[in-house]
Design a protein that fits this description.
Two copies of one chain form a homodimer.
Chain A lengths: L4 E3 L8 H16 L7 E4 L1 H10 L4 H18 L12 E7 L9 E5 L5 H9 L2 H18 L5 H15 L9 H19 L7 H15 L3 H10 L7 E7 L10 E8 L6 E9 L3 H6 L5 E2 H7 L1 H18 L3 E8 L2 E9 L4 H13 L5 H6 L3 H8 L2 E2 L9 E2 L1 E4 L2 E7 L2 H9 L4 E5 L7 H6 L2 E4 L7 H9 L2 E4 L4 E4 L4 E4 L8 E4 L3 E5 L4 E4 L4 E2 L2 H8 L1 H5 L4 H20 L3 E5 L3 H9 L5 E5 L9 H9 L3 H25 L4 E5 L12 H14 L4 H13 L11 H6 L3 H18 L5 E6 L5 H22 L7 E5 L2 H5 L1 H4 L5 E4 L1 H9 L3 H15 L15 H15 L4 E4 L7 H10 L3 E4 L4 H15 L14
Parallel strand pairs in A: 14-15, 15-16, 16-17, 24-25, 24-31, 25-26, 26-27, 27-28, 28-29, 29-30, 30-31
Antiparallel strand pairs in A: 1-2, 2-5, 3-4, 3-5, 6-7, 6-9, 7-8, 9-10, 11-23, 12-22, 13-17, 14-21, 18-19, 19-20, 21-22
Helix pairs in contact in A: 4-5, 5-7, 6-7, 11-12, 13-21, 15-36, 21-36, 22-24, 23-24, 24-28, 25-26, 28-29, 35-36
Chain lengths: ~900, ~900
Amino acid sequence: MDQYVYTFTEGDRTMGDLLGGKGANLAEMTRLGLPVPPGFTITTEACREYLAAGEPPGELRVQVTGALRTLEDTVGRRLGDADEPLLVSVRSGAKFSMPGMMETVLNVGLTDVSVHGLALASGDARFAWDSYRRLVQMFGKTVLGIDGEVFAAALDAAKAAKDVTSDLDLDATDLERLVGEFLAIVRTSTGHDFPQDPRDQLDQAIYAVFDSWNTDRARLYRRRERIPNDLGTAVNICTMVFGNLGESSGTGVCFTRDPATGHLGVYGDYLPNAQGEDVVSGVRNTLSLEDMARLDPASHGELRRIMRTLETHYRDLCDIEFTVERGRLWMLQTRVGKRTAAAAFRIAVQLVDEQLITLDDALARVSGAQLALLMFPQFDAGVERAPLTRGMAASPGAAVGRIVFDSATATEWAARGEQVVLVRRETNPDDLEGMVASIGVLTSRGGKTSHAAVVARGMGKTAVCGADGIEVDPVARTVRARGASGAQAVVLREGDVISIDGSTGEVFAGAVPVVPSPVARYLEEGLVVAVQGLAGEAVELVVAVDRLLRHADSVRRLSVRANADTAEDAARARSLGAQGIGLCRTEHMFLGERRVLIERVVLAETPAAREGALADLLPLQRQDVIELLEAMDGLPTTIRLLDPPLHEFLPDRAELMVRVARAEERGEPHDDDIALLAAVDRLHESNPMLGLRGVRLGLVVPGLFALQVRAIAEAAVERLRAGGRPKVEIMVPLVGSVMELYLIRDECDGIITEVAAAAGLDLTIPIGTMVELPRAALTAFRIAEAAEFFSFGTNDLTQTTWGFSRDDVEAGFFAAYLDKGVFTVSPFESLDVDGVGRLVRLAVKEGRRTRPDLKLGVCGEHGGDPESIHFFHSVGLDYVSCSPFRIPVARLEAGRATVLRGDVRGATAEDDVFD
Amino acid sequence: MDQYVYTFTEGDRTMGDLLGGKGANLAEMTRLGLPVPPGFTITTEACREYLAAGEPPGELRVQVTGALRTLEDTVGRRLGDADEPLLVSVRSGAKFSMPGMMETVLNVGLTDVSVHGLALASGDARFAWDSYRRLVQMFGKTVLGIDGEVFAAALDAAKAAKDVTSDLDLDATDLERLVGEFLAIVRTSTGHDFPQDPRDQLDQAIYAVFDSWNTDRARLYRRRERIPNDLGTAVNICTMVFGNLGESSGTGVCFTRDPATGHLGVYGDYLPNAQGEDVVSGVRNTLSLEDMARLDPASHGELRRIMRTLETHYRDLCDIEFTVERGRLWMLQTRVGKRTAAAAFRIAVQLVDEQLITLDDALARVSGAQLALLMFPQFDAGVERAPLTRGMAASPGAAVGRIVFDSATATEWAARGEQVVLVRRETNPDDLEGMVASIGVLTSRGGKTSHAAVVARGMGKTAVCGADGIEVDPVARTVRARGASGAQAVVLREGDVISIDGSTGEVFAGAVPVVPSPVARYLEEGLVVAVQGLAGEAVELVVAVDRLLRHADSVRRLSVRANADTAEDAARARSLGAQGIGLCRTEHMFLGERRVLIERVVLAETPAAREGALADLLPLQRQDVIELLEAMDGLPTTIRLLDPPLHEFLPDRAELMVRVARAEERGEPHDDDIALLAAVDRLHESNPMLGLRGVRLGLVVPGLFALQVRAIAEAAVERLRAGGRPKVEIMVPLVGSVMELYLIRDECDGIITEVAAAAGLDLTIPIGTMVELPRAALTAFRIAEAAEFFSFGTNDLTQTTWGFSRDDVEAGFFAAYLDKGVFTVSPFESLDVDGVGRLVRLAVKEGRRTRPDLKLGVCGEHGGDPESIHFFHSVGLDYVSCSPFRIPVARLEAGRATVLRGDVRGATAEDDVFD
């Protein structure tokens, strides 16, 4: 026979599946001997059976009777008793918190009879009638499905009749009359009287909580939060206690230590003669716990003892809800408390120092997201300011600088020492130089995954994107902020100072004071430099970060590499702890003024002309690689061959067509443009993302990959001769079939052998591939035959698995998808484990089956995303590669992954990932 | 101990894995008691061990010695004997035919000594020296790796010295001298003498054949043909017999029945006093087998008996190679013979009538590809003609008509009864109307998967694409065919007659006589109509097609539906045997003049304007559906909601920009165009294939899907009221997450319920989804919760799995990929089983696990492709849907799939498709 009902004395906190989170913690506190109002919990299993069958399991009623009798015996009162009634609350409590999604009914047990008993027992008739009024209203709405507006209207009418505005101005007589009206509403709306049998009230309330599991909004919430539909909710029946029975009563919330600093001590709010909702609503000004100590030293003393017990027991900061009823303290709820990012680090290390937890535990309690927040400067919270407008918080930080509208100005002004913020409608690869020179980027179009946002996050620059309240006019060189209705529009000009907050999306005219980040300074310059001149709390924070980061490094299995395209980036990444380069995008070496070199290759009309153009590229490419290998000496350095479609190196087709048409109309010469247009037309693709790029370029454009491989091999030779330890690897992009890789390898291996022979040196240059197409993952067991390593290109893999382009997704439907709950987070930010992740798991498993020593990494944006890093750890990758700025986050999360999930390399090789 | 050597008396035709195809058939003929020159086969296993170890298995030499001694005893001669030498051929023979890929050495056993014995025994000194010359040359090149040019040069020098041009003019003395030179070449090139030990020759030849398995070209060939690399080849050692030992000798090839008509009787070529290569090379005119009967009645009689034995034994038409050596007949090879498409049908049914095979067997022996060829008219083979140029054979058939350059002209001329051929550089959806009006399409750009090709195949229209030898000038309205070098260019004008052959890609000026297809007539109008006025052979063909197609219908498990967008298409599909519509693309209902209606929706500036535009669409959409359901009454009709990006209904962005610029330059008014351009800009996407389309449109554009669902539901009501049996199904495109489908279903179900309630009728309209994104397949177990059916959209699934767009793939790299062997066939023509197919299998298995009665079909182009149909049968789909014209092919192949693979529905549910 199933046990559907557990009294609070029977459960414990490990039983969340069966008792829900709230029920399990109430049982735990009861088990610790803390003063919890007696009660019992109906299991999630009862709920599941009720929902499946459409009626409660027969045994449930019997078990509730038993538990209720025990409860009545314990407190010495009977539910709904005429003289001294026991009242109970009926609250939902699922395994996962679903705030506001499900139902609660308080004061169950009040009837036309027992309300008098309550008035008598409490000595407060108004209190009794108000309690009854609340029961009828809550029960009517929640259990009986009556429109809440009807009750609200009756309440308003009562106040209007008496010409008052506050509920508190209604006295016992008013409320008694109002209860009469409420009871009439119930009768009219349902055709039945309000149930006067207290047990009947209780049962109906329980079933209403069960039913609330399946409301539309609850289902929608679960879909969004990926909470399984078949869990069901538990129901907690708890003796009502009242903090509003006079000055010896009260209610409050408190934390076992300061959630901002972590310092031990009393931290909380107390409100005498009040109920819980009064504290939360902020209607009355709360008192401190010090005040409570003066007002009610006995209760306060007991609360302090209980706080210590809870923190020792939960080994963490707890938050607590409590009520004092006529001098007696009752615990209503506890859970591990939320805290700020800085407090998380401090508290974790404090608890280690207090011998309450281990360093592993401490690492588990901080997060990469918190560390990332701590790495950015922030606007001084103490300074008042009004934002001009607000966009998407695309890349955190606080940037203050002069407005510039193009790369050239940005570079020029930055060179003379100005701090500049680049303001554009949207950015494209041509703006890279300007972004490098700026301290922040503001765009009026695009969102969190737009070019501006992605690149800014990669560089660690502050960015606010898609601020559609501003109009950018790059010709007039103005930014116009539309005022609120009626307000005057504000116009800012080039050179005006602007402040952008990448953590909130706020944009301010003028300079807002900024507080620099001590954590960023520590990460870049080390502990000793960072703590100089810092205040105590900041020192404590930096020391805590240092300790946890070092511990993460000591336990993590995943290596952390950087995505870096220049020696400068590489050096910075190395100082932040990168253990190699996972992705060097050679196309980034041909931006700016070098673009014309690729243009020559593309426009070459004869093989000889193309070969000439390629030959001119060789020394430049070689020098780039030499510098990169020097910066990364001794560490693996993965260089990806050219990936983007060639037309990206040519002018925009539509603009060129317009230029030709205008010249034609004006009778001006335009032969060059016509020739250029012919080339652009030849290379034009309706979906360039799905066109001639990556390995396809290498197979179709003679000599292109050969040039790059030769440059890389010659650079390695140069470094060897200079006494260096180059560990370069060549990566082939966009492979979908092993045949492509075989063909490229045949060419590459030949060149490497030739260069090595000419130099008389041994060259070992592993050749691997990106896995960034579903087909590459699906045929990984074949591709591994020809690849010495795989690097998952999760950006492209996300695009093709979902069939949407990152460039287009934002503008079109991304906002709607977030809004409707199709996404909870952009799949470009955090890996879509169910879809894209499944392909990654498959490729890992089957790639390693073919080649057990296959090296596996990831170089998409996800390599720096905390949640995704845990996934990559779990599937057994060897390394993640991310933008230099994300490296500390990745180090921390890789360590956390080991602590939380164990060292699992190769574990999935045993799993059947498709069953 | 492994058996590495099998004499021909030991094997049989089931042992192809071990003995290769040739060896197994030689053994089979030996087993049947036919006169096969004695010999033995070395197994593929010996080859594998040799290749793995780099040296022959020790036991191999011993076993070869045993087999050789048995052979010598059998024929009574010794290998390389001085007086009467046994000579052998050493030939490769893998399991799968790899024509020309591997090596052969003839005349092994000739030495400086035995050549004299052969001269004496044959009484023909020239023959002996020529045989030795051939051995040294073949062995030198194949076994010793000497450049073949060196021998060829020496041979040429010998002829030049004697001032003759033919090898035949060299006499015994000349050839003896030449052998001396060849032996010197061997000595110089290798530093060793040509091996004079016959056994040494034999062993080296065997290892050379083994080695030939791993040459670059053999590996490349296997990669392309997907033949595993680890099979290895067998080696056949066979007693040499000579057909060139005088008039009582000869050689020939023959078929057991006429491979063109299937008629029983003698069919072959014979050449007295000749060797096999003389027949093949066509140097001498061959005789018929009737001639052979006169010249050598005994051998001819025996050959007839053997042919009958082989056909009875193989139960099929066989082709045979034979040699007569001095009046004695020897069988050198046999295999099942190739035949024309028409003969395949006739022969299959003849064999059934002769009780040699069952109808199931007969069905297995014809193919959909053959049926497709028979459905097209063809140019009269008897008429001589010279093509103007040649393009890709994009859609078969023979079309003769007047040249038109645009849709309007095509429609106009066709309306007055002209046959027209649409000639364009390339086609786009605007040309659809013109393609419908034309009997053929010719383009100068694009290839087999270009828009023109795909649409033409879908319509069953003849098409030649990518004929880059012509220049199309739609303004001057001319086609210019560049002449061969020096030749005059030919210019054709609108209205000139042109003939295009879609089976060969040839293009002719003027009218070439066409022979109509009796099979097409049969399929469209039935057997009785089709046979009227036909000749005997054509009647026999039509009857054979009818019998096999009806048998296919009786055995197949897969239903066959049509992709059809109009009532007209639907009716045609039904007459061709369609059992429903698997895909009706509603966007095709809004082309041509209705395009403006969608434009109004897109350009609507207020919700009210948009709702008005949608309301205007409703009656049109409803009427379309009513007509479709009427044509398909009683059969399932799947209607897909709007799929393409909305900007497809607007003008081209670049062209519009040019128009605006030109108007600006001219000072002409262009406000309307500026407004239009703003809308186009708003909807512009850099990769529209990966943008706002399909279900995304439905979730973002309010009312759009609702309009379509309402039209469909109301149409069903109308048909029910008219006494019809509408079986309509709604299909949601481009779903990647079950959440999208839940949201759309919520809306659709509500509308259907509302329409049904208003009509007072029961409406059952299943709602399903396309599975056309990798993520849909990867999460099929979830999506099946919300879908009553899946239809695999294998076109888009191929695009996203491979990451290339069908529109762009051709122009960019497709030709190179076919050339390099990355593809053997376009993955848009025949399903990529390893990549895309794996996703299909997964979705079938996991979708059915969630919903056992999930209906599964395919509606991509692959639904009409023979090879793909077998795959869809194997994975357990319920139906395939293809263009109307492909329906007979699909019916036939679905039947063949059952015969060849058994009825396997749900079999894969047991498989682990990822292990």
